[in-house]
Amino acid sequence: MKLGIRRRLILLYICAAVVECLLMFTISAAVWASANSLTDSYSSNIKMEDLSKISSQVHDDLYAYMHMKSYDNINNYLRDKALLKKMIYELNQVPSGDRLLLSEFSVYKFAVTFLSYSDSAVFLRRSGDNVEAMENYHNAEKAYTYLTDSIFRLNQIYLFDNIQRFKSIRNLAGKVTITGILIVMIVSLIVVFILSVFVATITQPLTEISESANQLAQRNFDIPLFTYNKKDEIGSICRAFNRMIISIREYIDTIWEKAIRENELREKEMKMNELYQEAKLDALQNQINPHFLFNTLNTGAQLAMMEGSDRTCDFLEKVADFYRYNIQFSGNESVLSDELNLLESYVYIMKVRFGERFTYSTEILTRRLNVSIPGMILQPLVENCIKYGFKDMPKGGKIHLKIQDDGKNVVVTVSDNGPGFPEEKRAELLKGVSDKNSEDMIDLQEKDSGTGVGLVNVIKRLKLYYKTENVFDIQKSEFGGTCFIIKLNGE
Amino acid sequence: MDFEYKKKSCTILFIAMKKKSLIVTLLGLIAVSCFIYISFFAYRIRAVSRGSYRDSREYKYHVLVGVTESNADYAKEFYEGTKYICPVFDAAVELLETSPEDIDSLLDYWIEYARFVDADGLILYSGDDTLSSKKLIGLHEKEIPVVIAGECSTGSQQVSHVTSSKYELGKLAFQEIIDGGWKKPVAIVRKNYQSDQPYRIISAIERNMPQQKKIKIHNLVSEEVIDDEVRNVLMQYAQNDSADVIITFTAEETNLIAQTIVDQNITDKLSVIGFSGDKKTLDYIKKGIVSANIYADPWEMGAASAEELFKWKSSGFSNNYRQIVPKIRRGTK
């Protein structure tokens, strides 16, 4: 289980505090031991002083009793003797290799001897044997002399020993103090360093996050992702930050793609607009000229009528109708019957122009003449027949328009008896219209100018209008020429 | 703060972070070492305060050693000899005080001391042949064995007497005189010398000499060895060419005569053969002023005394008279 930053910091602080406390405790214990030892140094001398005093008291009590048998004296003697016994039993009671302990042993032995003679003297004095009592008393006196001498010597040894010990402890205490200060400083530095390392470890990712945030603020999104994967608060922040960076990058990529697409569209739109403007201009120009032309043609027709030239009048009216229709429906939706009317006008005009050079026949086998059709579709086909089919025929040209219903579509067939449509060109035309884009189409149209005016345009418009590829076909006609087949979907 | 310095510090900290576990372990070890160091100090203080550094070995017997020899080095060696051997017999050794100076009072003091402390034995070293011990009965009628090393009176009551034979000492001295080619030996003896030991040694030397080669004995007039007198005596012998080697009987006399010979610049005329000796004597031996130093090894005497004491304690019998083979230290002139 991972600890949170707060807990880790608290734990770190507690650890540091515990280390410092332990160190202080250890040093304090050492200093306390030094102080205690210094205090205890001379306790042995105090003990010897007490021993000397109590020995002296026992000696005095013995003297008093030997000179005057009294209850108080014997009581004092017994009391002090008990005290002396208690004290000497605290001394070393076996011979030792150590000089001090051996001296303690000697004191103990002299004290025992002194008490032995004293007890004998007291006992004999109490029993009335004064001579023996005095002999023991004298021995006790001698023993006492040796006892005091040995206590004095032991005291001296203790004193010398204590002085040495005092010096040693003082030196050690001095060393402890200096070493303690040094160690406290060293350990404190160590603790501070370890704390710094740990805190830096904890806060390092925060610094990195801060730097990354600044980079992001300066719109630099190419920063490396965080590798900090611990399950703590910083880990969560890092992961969230990583997700945020990834999201921003994805969002930027999306925006870029969109911008590129929009740019492309905008460019297309601009191009279209340009074309549109050009077309509009052309249209306007076309609109202006035809109006003038219509008026002129109508004026011409009226003039012809007033002059009694009916044929010229009809001709001019047909020409005017043709162009009116042409302007009205060029690029717009029309119906098959209107197209047929236009075609009648056109054929009339062409007949006036070419005379008996060709014949035109229609065969309408359906009543579905109200099917929708893009305007100006049939006229280019007939025009193509006249212009290219009968190019090398001075007369005898034949154009047959057939409209029939195959149950599903209204099939319009325009046939001629010309030389026919070359197969290579046919395939190229049909394939080219299907595959190539608009720019290539223009090329094809230009290239195809020897094949038929506006044929490409017709095919393209039909396909766009009916949204199918099978709307137009070119075959060999029953008259040996070209047969254009248009399948109009009546639905 | 300087930016570069800050950057450097950060780099160090960063490296430390990378090597975190290693550094933490290292620093932890330092901290633990500090604790151990402080604890060691605390332990040392406790040890010093309790005196735990002492030899606290306990023994069964308590033996007293008293030395009357004025030669401190000699006395110390003797005590060391007893101290070395006594623990073998499970005994602690206590060196007795040397006051009062009066030999009889001192002996009484020691005997009483041994009696009242209820000691298990008393070993005495004496250079005084008038020393006379008596049978020592302690508390509860327990006999305390006394061993005397060195010199003592013939009437002294001890369980064993450890010493070097004067004959052997004299024999060694004679051999030195012969080997040194000296023909005019003079023995200097203080007037108030408390024992007849010098005369016995002289006698032992003479016993080995041909009749015509007697040792001339010069008794110093003063009771103490006084520089002026010694100087005068030596100058006289040197000027008259009536002596070529001086025989002395104590370390103090040997050292004084050797120093006087050096001071008077008569080292080419007089040499010294001394009995007993101390550290100072060793210096004169090294310098070749003292050509020979004949002595009974005090350490060996102390050890032998302790052995005899515990032989008596264990079996009730000991060697009444135990001889220590004398040794000789020679100088190179």
Task: Please describe what this structure looks like.
The complex is a heterodimer of chains A (491) and B (333). By secondary structure, chain A is of the alpha+beta class. Chain A has twelve helices and seven strands. In chain A, the strands form two sheets. A five-stranded mixed beta sheet of chain A has the order 2-4-5-7-6. With 333 residues, chain B is α/β, with parallel strands linked by helices. Chain B contains ten helices and 14 strands. In chain B, helix 3 (72-85) links the parallel strand 1 and strand 2. The longest helix of chain B has 31 residues, at 20-50. The N and C termini of chain B lie far apart (80 Å). Chains A and B meet through helix 1, helix 4 and helix 5 of A and helix 1, helix 2, strand 2 and helix 4 of B.
Key features of this structure:
heterodimer; A: 491 residues; alpha+beta; B: alpha/beta; six-stranded mixed beta sheet
